[in-house]
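[Meeting: bench + compute handoff]

Bench side (C.D.) handed over the final construct sequence. Compute side (W.E.) agreed to return the predicted structure before the next meeting so the bench team could plan truncations. Sequence as handed over:
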Amino acid sequence: MQGGWFPLVFGIGVFLLLTTWKRGRDMLSQRQAADAVDINSFIKGVEDVPRAPGTAIFLTQNPDKVPHAMLHSLKHFKALHERVVLVAVNILDTPRLTDSHRVTVTRLANDFWQVKVFYGFMEQVNLPDALDWCCEDGLSFEAMDTSYFIGRETLIPSMDAAMPFWRQKIFVGMFRNAGSVVNYFGLPANRVVELGGQVVL
């Protein structure tokens, strides 16, 4: 009654927000994984698709699957770039990494590439600088000839979801106000293309 209730209520509120964010991200990942297409199957299916000059970098959590931004890009432009790079950024439990362990590069068919970039949890992410290390594996980038494609999802709460509707509304608000991916990865703003889509939780 003299104020001891405040830290308890505050702690419960913070715990609710953190667990809602974690649960919501898991639900979003599950929804996206359910609709994901295997990248190798996709490459075989787009062999006859026109290719535009330049390099397209698609940020993704799983480079073995086709990012939604790539599907939206193909749907709208009816073409792919002549070189397509799928980039996944992984934050490890190690504080810092040496540059020799920064990237791994895998070349796929039809001029598709997979790149995994690794950072320690105390490091500042700068994706363009990290991608410069790909030249050692035969993948070099020209800054003015490279475009970064990122997905911008609009979340829609669902009455049938595993998480209560009111918690979904909280997660949608948190997701909408989350920090910019462009700033977090240190991307040049004038080379970024955002493609939106709706995801029903």
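W.E. noted at the follow-up: The beta strands are 51-59, 80-92, 103-107, 112-120, 146-156, 192-200. C.D. will use this when planning the next construct.
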